[in-house]
Each structure stands twice: as structure tokens, then as C-alpha cells.
Specification:
The protein is mainly beta. The chain has two domains: 30 residues; 224 residues, Jelly Rolls (Sandwich), CATH 2.60.120. It contains two helices and 17 strands. The strands form two sheets. Strands 1, 3, 4, 6, 10, 11, 13, 14, 15 and 17 form a ten-stranded antiparallel beta sheet that branches. Strands 2-5-16-7-8-9-12 form a seven-stranded antiparallel beta sheet, with no helix packed on it. A hairpin with a 3-residue loop joins strand 13 and strand 14. The relative contact order is 0.22.
């Protein structure tokens, strides 16, 4: 074997230094959010101060237009508000987080408050949703009502405090799932044993999302619904997607929205 020349050693040394510098630059370029996600820590999607990282998309409006200041942050809460509306005109809105996720746990604390805006549909009373595995906000058509996604329905009890109205039902705008062993094309599927929450109390829910393998809805650590193979109507499996919350006529408040990435 020929001895390595000094010139060759210099080239190798320079290459190794370049690789090292690039690696350090790559680590420095990672955001705190990315570092926490990589290490399996909880990542706060809502910072409690403003809508940084979130983009609104309302039916009939351009991307980024926050129609009538519906989505806002006040007193540390992310609010869906309608105090600047005269009446409801079917301007369905969604607030999209900037990143897509595939395998993760999503934890959310929410509550319904106040009165539904005048003219809001009956089904939307104390109704919001966590939209997961969704299309991007930029890919939505201007007059599109809802993103193609899996909707985990957030519901509150009706007046009187007696009627059952369980939270964490499933709705499927532009999608289908395999539920109880078969492809289920119903638009909404009610959870068989989810709890009902009356009044303005805070509710904590969790979603366990494992790509297209399985999605579980949980309250108090208990799974209340489970399904598999989320897919677009054409059969394309959904392995990942956006997370968004809704504006569909009833005031809602969120005080925590956080994600923990699950290693595959």
C-alpha cells in the first residue's frame, strides 16, 4: 500500500472539517420545536400569546384573511369569537398549524362559552373540531367549506344538562375510514361510549395518531373510539397531514394545544 501523501491528508482533513461544520449548522438551524419533537417532548402548538405558527382560511376568503377577527388570543386563550358578526353567513373557517404530523399524540383543552351567533345551524351548537391528517390550507379552494381531513368532533351538552351528547365523535369531510373491521362511508360516526360535558367546563382530550395504522380518541385516558386506514375518498391512505381547529358558529376557547411525536 502506498503511503498517503501530505496533500491527500490535507484534502481529507478539509473534507472532515466541512462535514463537521455542515452538521453543526444543521443542528443550529433546527428550531426548539423540532428539537423537542425529535426527542419526544411535548411541543406547544399554541404559545399563549398570539397566533404565531397558525394561518386562517375561511370559505370565500383568501388564505390568511382572519374574517371578522374570528380567531384571536385574549388573556392567554385562543378564542373562536363572533362578537363582530351580525349573523352567520356560512363562512366556515379553519385555523391551520404550520407543520404536518404523522405519528403523534395531540392533547387539547377546550370549552364552549356564550351564545351561538345568530343564524348558526342547529347542528353547530357547541360544536368545534380538531381536524387531523388534513390537506394544507394553501391547497383549499376559495369556496371550500372544510379541508379534506379526519374531523375529531368536539361537542358540548345541550341546554337542560340532561340529554346525552358525547364528545369525540368522528366526521369525515372528503375521507373514509375502516371502522369496526370494514370501510365505513358515513359522514359522521358517533362514539359508542363517549362522555357528555355540560356547561362551560374545561375538557381535556387526547388523540393517538399512528399514520394510517390506527387513530384513537381518548378522554381521561380511556379510548372512546378507534379506527384504522384513514383515506381520501379515492382510497389514498393518509399517512400524515395538517392540524386545524374550526369556526362554525359557536364561541369556543382553547387554553392548550400540544403535540408529542411518537417514534415509529
Amino acid at each position: 500500500m502506498k503511503p498517503i501523501s501530505q496533500f491527500t491528508l490535507s484534502l481529507l482533513s478539509g473534507a472532515m472539517m466541512l462535514v463537521s461544520c455542515n452538521a453543526q449548522e444543521g443542528d443550529a438551524a433546527k428550531t426548539d420545536e423540532t428539537k423537542k419533537a425529535d426527542s419526544g417532548e411535548w411541543v406547544q402548538l399554541f404559545n399563549g400569546k398570539d397566533l404565531t405558527g397558525w394561518t386562517p382560511k375561511f370559505k370565500g376568503e383568501d388564505l390568511g384573511v382572519n374574517y371578522k377577527n374570528t380567531f384571536r388570543v385574549e388573556n392567554g386563550l385562543l378564542k373562536v369569537s363572533y362578537d363582530q358578526y351580525e349573523k352567520w353567513n356560512a363562512n366556515f373557517g379553519h385555523l391551520f398549524y404550520k407543520s404536518e404530523f404523522s405519528h403523534y399524540i395531540l392533547r387539547c383543552e377546550y370549552r364552549f362559552v356564550g351564545d351561538q351567533v345568530k343564524g348558526g345551524p342547529g347542528w353547530a351548537f357547541r360544536n368545534n373540531g380538531l381536524m387531523i391528517h388534513g390537506q394544507t390550507a394553501a391547497s383549499m379552494k376559495k369556496d371550500q367549506d372544510f379541508p379534506n381531513s379526519i374531523e375529531v368532533q368536539l361537542l358540548g351538552g345541550k341546554p337542560g344538562g340532561k340529554e346525552k351528547r358525547p364528545t369525540l365523535n368522528l366526521c369525515t369531510p372528503g375521507t373514509h375510514v375502516f371502522y369496526q373491521g370494514k370501510l365505513d362511508k358515513r359522514h359522521c360516526i358517533n362514539t359508542p361510549n363517549g362522555p357528555t360535558f355540560h356547561g362551560d367546563q374545561w375538557v381535556t382530550v387526547e388523540l393517538e395518531v399512528r399514520g394510517s395504522e390506527v387513530i384513537r380518541h381518548k378522554v381521561g385516558g380511556k379510548t372512546v373510539m378507534e379506527y384504522k386506514m384513514p383515506q381520501l375518498n379515492d382510497g389514498t391512505l393518509l399517512e400524515k397531514g395538517t392540524i386545524s381547529i374550526q369556526a362554525e358558529s359557536h364561541p369556543t376557547e382553547f387554553r392548550k394545544i400540544e403535540v408529542k411525536v411518537i417514534k415509529k
